[in-house]
Amino acid sequence: MRAPLRSSLGPRADGHHQVLFVFAECVPFAIALLVLVVEFSPAHVLYTGPMLVATPALAAVTMGPKGTLAAAGVAVAVSVATATHNHAWGSQQVYTNFLALFLVSVASFMTSRAARRRTENELNQVRRIATAAQDVLLRPVPDRLGSVRASSMYLAAEAGAQIGGDLYDVVQTRYGVRMIVGDVRGKGLPAVRAAAVVLGAFREAVHYEEDLVEVIRHCGAALRRDAVVTGMVGGDDAVLEGFVTALVAQIPDGPHIEVINRGHPPPLLLRDGTVRALMPAAPMPPLGLEEFISGPPGRTERYPFAPGDRLLLCTDGVIEARDPDDTFFDLTEAMAALRDHTREAFLEGLRQALLRHTQSRLSDDVAVLLVDRREDGGTRPAAGPA
After folding, report:
1. What is the C-alpha to C-alpha distance for residues 283 and 298, in angstroms, rounded to an integer?
2. Per-residue confidence of the chain (386 residues) as pLDDT tens digits?
3. Straight-line distance from the first to the last Cα atom of the chain, in angstroms, rounded to the nearest whole number
4. Closest CA to 6 of 374, 365, 370, 379
5. Backbone φ, ψ for residue 315 (5° rounding)
6. Which residues, listed in sequence order, are joined to residue 82 by a DSSP beta bridge?
7. Which residues make up the CATH 3.60.40.10 domain(s) of the chain?
8. Cα separation of 199 and 197, whole Å?
9. How many Cα neighbours within 13 Å face the side chain of 45?
10. Which fold has domain 141-373?
């Protein structure tokens, strides 16, 4: 079962554009303040009526219907104050200014509301497309796969997004249950494309290649071919500008798990309330950086995985999540605290703990695979490397 999608409500990634946007929102109120200063100073002979009339129209560009009404209200209040201060009530100019301000305010409000509805409709359409794309790219993980049970969770960091550069999948094959978790360097559509390429290669190779090394080799080769086609690199000998950290695992019939780690955070094994990281004996570079490998593109390592054990595979969006004080999220502690929960409750508790730690401001996408070895799945080995 895949946990519900969530997106953070964090600040915009581009701080420069955010400052400009806030400045634009302040312009209508700054104009109203300027008019008030002018009218209450010796320079009140200047004609400031058109400046106040423009404030609702300016607010409609950046602030929406409520902001437009607020700007119109401020403009009316300033007009009443200045007309009273200058003893201008009864003059044709004052009533003309009020009529113009009313007409511009109504038009600005209607325009702003129509624009808001159009934007919301477009955003809803984009979300529907993203949801459909996610169902194809990150399809639901089967609940039962032989001797194991699995669940997944995905949280997108980008506001309004439902899909990013993280990837995962679990497949039942004749060689056992095989799974992948990966993280694409970069953001946006190029990251989604790279994730789709790696997942496509994995889903094809797992059914035909007996050796996990060959499976991971197919994923890396597919990534490089796509990079050449899309112009990211100049040829087969060029270095990829982007890469993908990936971890491929296989759960055979025996009470163990086989893992190939290509630069990815190690999986965490929960056994008897104790969490242990399955660290690789020989670290390998990510997919796309095969030029730094002198030997084969990976080496299979075996670890105990007995009935009753729980395995968590995740992307670095989990372990690198920080609170406002820049303290990293303690995944080991969170897993130990949730050790007695069902898989669904475990993932929900992990999601809540993660969002609580970051105050719902994730800096990177989060993908999690949770795998339980069923109690009837075999015998329990002694602790330690297999």
Report:
1. 9
2. 444 443 333 344 445 566 776 777 788 888 878 877 777 777 666 666 677 788 888 888 888 888 888 888 888 888 888 878 777 777 777 778 888 888 888 888 888 888 888 888 887 777 676 666 666 677 788 888 888 899 998 887 655 455 567 889 999 999 999 999 998 887 667 778 888 889 999 999 999 999 999 999 999 888 888 877 776 554 444 444 568 899 999 998 888 899 999 989 999 999 988 999 999 888 888 888 877 777 666 678 999 999 989 999 998 888 888 888 889 999 999 999 998 899 999 999 999 999 999 888 887 888 899 999 877 654 444 434 44
3. 30
4. 365
5. -95, 170
6. none
7. 141-373
8. 6
9. 2
10. Phosphatase 2c; domain 1 (3.60.40)
Q: What is the largest CA-CA distance in the chain?
A: 96
Residue of 381, 149, 371, 382 lying closest to 255 (CA atoms):
381
How far is the CA of 246 from the CAs of 68, 166, 184, 262, 359, in angstroms? 49, 10, 9, 5, 28
Is residue 240 within 8 A of residue 223, CB to CB? The reply is yes
The Cα 313–Cα 247 span in angstroms is 8
H/E stretch holding 311 reads strand 310-314
Residues 6+ apart with CB under 8 A from 362: 8, 10, 155, 156, 157, 317, 321, 354, 355
Give 304's strand partners: 256
d(CA 114, CA 255): 61
Residues in the chain: 386
pTM for this one? 0.66
Closest to 275 measured CA to CA, from 228, 317, 343, 333? 333
Helix, strand, coil percent content, the chain, rounded in steps of 5: 45, 20, 35
Calpha distance 137→95 (Å, rounded): 62
Which are the contacts of 370, defined by CB distance < 8 A and separation ≥ 6? 150, 151, 152, 153, 310, 311, 312, 343, 346, 347
The amino acid occupying position 46 is L
Rounded to an integer, what distance in angstroms lies between the CA atom of residue 16 and that of residue 145? 49
Contact 298, 216 (CB under 8 A): yes
Residue for token pair 């506001």: 159
